[in-house]
Amino acid sequence: MIIDIVGGSLVVVGAALMALGAIGLLRFPDVFTRMHAATKAATVGVIATTTAAAIEAGAIGGALILLVVVALLFLSGPLGMSLLARAAYHDPETPRTPSTVELEVELPITESTPARRLRGTVPLLALWLFVVWIAAFGSLAPNVVASGAVVALGIAYAYRLFAPRWPRAILHPVAAWQFVVYFMGQMVVSTWDVIRALRLPPGQIRPAILEVPLRARNRSEVTLLMNSLSFTPGTVALELHEHQLYVHVLDARDPEGTVRDITTMESKIIAAFGGDSSAISTDRRR
Amino acid sequence: MMVVTAVSGVLLGFAALAGLIRVVRGPSVADRMVALDTLLFVGAGALGLYIVATGDTTYLAVLVVAVLTAFISTVIVARYIEEETRR
User: Which of A38, A146, A240, A257 is deepest in the core (most CB within 10 A)?
Assistant: First the structure.
């Protein structure tokens, strides 16, 4: 009974988010603004409905499928959107709404974090592949577990052999958890912002392309930052050029606030990867 | 449960219709791709609704495929636009 109520409300919420995103798809003036509404809302909607379906399925089968879907959405969704946005950004034939402003952001102190050598991720990759394997089979039978372990370790090790530049990182649990909590909060806040922007007449939306200097130098840090920004409604990472990040912002009435959000997220990511988390640290100057 | 199914169905139907309109109207390739992505996600949402409404979990794994397909098609179209721009 309770399961039915939870599952039912999740399905309705998911469907409602998709419908709201679809309104943005129709109303927003250009492809970038439509991306903010449609794809992000749809992503959250898919997570909601998948959660409902997973609850229905129950036990490990449902939970693992949910884990795989959410992880795939987080890894692939923003990446695809960023690629598409970058292509559209460079393409002169893609119309951009004339009210879009381009802002170059000056940050007071932009001390870069040192490029650190981070430890290996092969065990993490292997663990992840193993989870996917178990999810795909939906069982914990000994032969499934054994073959999964062999395949996961094999692929992870082969990947390292053939792709030596695979980002290596080890996360700091507390800081990583703080980042996850902050990220979830940002998701809720910015989803709400996008929903509010739906009511604006198309001419009143003030999209902007911000050029933000990055402190993060580590490949994993930059990747996670761009991915998180593109996953959060209201911002899409467009391009990275010489440590300058180009971000498309749906509604830049308050550019300072948006930049603060971006740099806060960057600081938390740097902290999660073991760097100095304070945005204006001067004592580490070298 | 009937109410849930009906309400969600109408909302998803509206989202799918809006996506179709955007696919037809464009105007750019990227616009159409964004709309097609939305359509695929709406399809995944409809599948979730079906699973919850009927309790039949046979197609649960199809959700994974839907999400992956959305990603791959987006990347391919993005590459296509970039190649067109370069020419």
Answer: A38
